[in-house]
Amino acid sequence: MTPLKALGGTSDILPEEAQAWQQLEEKARRVFQLYGYQEIRTPLIEEAAVFTSSLGEAAEIVTKQMYLFEDRGGRSVALRPEGTASVVRALIEHGLDKTSPLNRFYYGGAMFRAERPQKGRRRQFHQIGVEVFGSASPHQDVELLCLLKRLLEEWGLSGWKLKLNSLGCREDRAKIVEHVRATLAPQAAKLCEDCRQRLEKNPLRILDCKEEGCRKLCEGIDVYEAVCAPCKEHFEQVKRGLEALAVPFDRDPHLVRGLDYYTRTAFEVVHPGLGAQDALGGGGRYDDLVKLMGGSTPVPAIGFAVGIERVLMALESAGPKPPEPAARPVYVAAVSSAEIPNALELAEQLRRAGIAAFANLEERPLGRQMKQASSMGARFALILGADEVKEKMVMVKDMQTGEQKKESLADALRKVNHNA
Ligand code: AMP
Predict the structure, then answer these.
(1) Which pTM value belongs to this model?
(2) Is 279 near ligand 1, meaning CB less than 6 Å away?
(3) Domain that residue 351 falls in
(4) pLDDT (tens digit, 9 = 90+) per residue, 176-190?
(5) Residues 269/161, Cβ–Cβ less than 8 Å
(6) Mean pLDDT of the chain
(7) Is 271 exposed, middle or buried (0-12, 13-18, 19+ CB in 10 A)?
(8) 179 exposed, middle or buried (CB, 10 Å; 0-12, 13-18, 19+)?
(9) Which residue CA neighbors atom 8 of ligand 1 most closely?
(10) Could you identify the atom of ligand 1 that is nearest to the CA of residue 310?
């Protein structure tokens, strides 16, 4: 049989890499805790309507990229392409907005989009994101962006840029769409093929088309011109707040994000080390989404998601980092196969005391065991032979100096614990 392979656009995260993932996740958890966010975990699979009713029918995630299928019961289900819609579904389903006026959540995990795999574009990728429900205040936008900055700093990322824009409210959005369509319609022939289609269905996406010709045609367009006075005031307060807290940003008049649900503040973080797919993450306000998805009352909300693969790519682009010191287990050796059960028992005792231990479980010469202990970076080897077992003692070998001394189990434990 030909060996099986992972599907294109999906990847195994091998142990060496998984360490970097764990570090990113731990650092993120610490930041979220500092800001008072709680974890929420939603299923990877949802009724397709969770996404089709929220992201917008013309959104490319829905039209082209969603893993959509009928399950055995004939239901239309989808693998989640993003996190927000599921979290909103959970908020409504469990009435979380009724039990607490303010909810701050974070989540992490796999997302699925049937995109053409390329650098920075996977079919299964991973996001860490946050969502805040119950605050319409511009100060909440500012605090959320402070959290995002802190997260990127904790991860050791530099050189990133925060791009910021306002899309106004729902009514403004309709005006913006018309404004963009009316401006570009006379030049439709000069647009790329995709954008000619977008002109009908989703004209806002033309603003972030990467084709040189389309970019030129969009140069003079600023969506902010169509934004109403209260939304403009909200945005001015956000900008003032960011300036006061030294969160650097650039206003980008063409930043629209791909999904229908965004209102008011929208943002994206880009990094020069990523190449064509240069977004590390993005998000914005979505004040109408809870109502739109069936909530009984409107709940103002804001959130963002960051792509973990892209964070790792950006960190790599800054050059190799010295590897984190690996855990150094205590090696427990058995002189002959008769002492293997004792080695296993001693290793368990060490682990109960919170000390990482590796027990030799194979019948092999002591010399080979010591080689293995060195290659694992063990600081100590505890060697058990027939005499040691009988005397309830253990031979403690310092792997750095090569010195060895017979000691009581209690003394040996104290010694390795002290040097752990
Ligand atoms: P989006 O929901 O499209 O704004 O995505 C948020 C972030 O998730 C992006 O900025 C990327 O970092 C990451 N991301 C989105 N799609 C992919 C993908 N297909 N492969 C890898 N990362 C992705």
Answers:
(1) 0.91
(2) yes
(3) 330-413
(4) 999 899 999 998 899
(5) yes
(6) 94
(7) buried
(8) middle
(9) 307
(10) 12
